Amino acid sequence: MEYGKYCDIADDFQHGKNFKCGSFVKIDKDVIVGDDVTIEDFVMLKSGVRVGDNAKIEEYAMILSGSQVGKGTKIGTYTKVGKGAVIGDNCQFTSFCEIRDNCKLGNNVGMGSRGTLSANTVVEDNVVMKYSFVVTDTPILSKGKEKKVGVLKKGSMFGANVTIMPGVNIGENAEIGACSQVRHDVPDNEIWYGSPAHFLKKRNQ
After folding, report:
1. Residue 186 DSSP one-character state
2. Cβ within 8 Å of residue 122, ≥6 positions away
3. What is the dihedral of CA 117, 137, 198, 156, to 10 degrees?
4. Cα(first)–Cα(last) distance of the chain, in Å?
5. Lowest mean pLDDT segment, chosen from 13-17, 22-26, 145-149, 195-199
6. Distances in Å between the alpha carbon of 40 and those of 33, 71, 145, 148?
7. CA 186, 102, 166, 192 torsion: positive or negative?
8. What single string gives the DSSP state of each residue in 124-180?
9. pTM over 0.70, yes/no
10. Alpha helix (H) residue ranges in the chain
11. Is the alpha carbon torsion for 197, 103, 110, 205 positive or negative?
């Protein structure tokens, strides 16, 4: 067990073996982390957070109340995980990502820097999102309190600077090309690209 300097850690904090904690870390009450977890400098873990074995939380990351981070998952520098979010095992998030409240992510999910998932987004297993990927949630800007998000199904892949419009669902093993804006549901095993995105071809053709 290793602790850095100037940490503020609740008395009831629980951790497994080989826990490593950087400096200027704040950990609230009712937080539990597993074995071989690394928490780097200036990280904040709010109440009720759970972190699985072999996870790594990099500098300046913030994990809000009630969220779960799976085994072997890396939360990158300056990444924010919202309240009640669930992130599966062996996921990878680089710098400046935002996973908003109550998102549900499966296993082996990857996101490049500056990606954003709007609240309540569902991401299934083995999804890859390159940098500046965004799932939006406000169909009518003048009605900002009305939110709608879709599902990114397992095996789907997204190039850089892709925007998914509110309520749009992406099928299994679909591919979306870089710089696309997706306005309609994409079926399984199809490749779409463009702004607005349109069908290009079936995968493996």
Report:
1. B
2. 103, 104, 149, 150, 151, 152
3. 30
4. 53
5. 145-149
6. 14, 17, 36, 35
7. negative
8. -TT-EE-TT-EE---SSTTSTT-----EE-TT-EE-TT-EEPTT--B-TT-EE-TT-
9. yes
10. none
11. negative
**What is the Cα–Cα distance from 112 to 15, expressed in whole angstroms?**
29
Q: pLDDT tens digit string along 85-95?
A: 999 999 999 99
Could you tell me if 53 and 70 are in contact, meaning their C-beta atoms sit under 8 angstroms apart? no
What are the pLDDT digits (tens) for 8-62?
Answer: 999 999 999 999 999 999 999 999 999 999 999 999 999 999 999 999 999 999 9
Tokens of 179: 């710089």
Of 74, 40, 45, the closest CA to residue 59 belongs to 40
Largest CA distance in the chain: 59
CA distances to 38, 41, 61, 126, 169 from 194, in Å: 40, 40, 33, 23, 17
